[in-house]
Write the structure tokens for this entry.
Amino acid sequence: QVQLVESGGGLVQAGGSLRLSCVASGSIFTINTMAWYRQAPGKQRELVAGLTSGGRTNYADAVKGRFTIFSDNAKNTVYLQMNSLKPEDTAVYYCNADLSTKEIVRTLNYWGQGTQVTVSS
């Protein structure tokens, strides 16, 4: 069974930084993409940043230049470095992955349970 477990959320003042981590565990065969989404109260979940197995990244316009997504493939871990945080970055941040397992070779999509990020003004 695959699990995505996020950590690193918390309360930070505007202008501060946080680093989120997401560890994928289980009988993983191949990870194709990993990404971070966020959902603020009353809003739809939105893509923040994505990273392919080939190293390509994409970012939401709202976070370009402030957030960086990167991974440690040996640890099946993806990170989100968040700098110059703003109150509007406040949300629950979710890890997402497209991956295959040794039991189910086809690629499936998985979500973590989320970690709260709160930015105070």
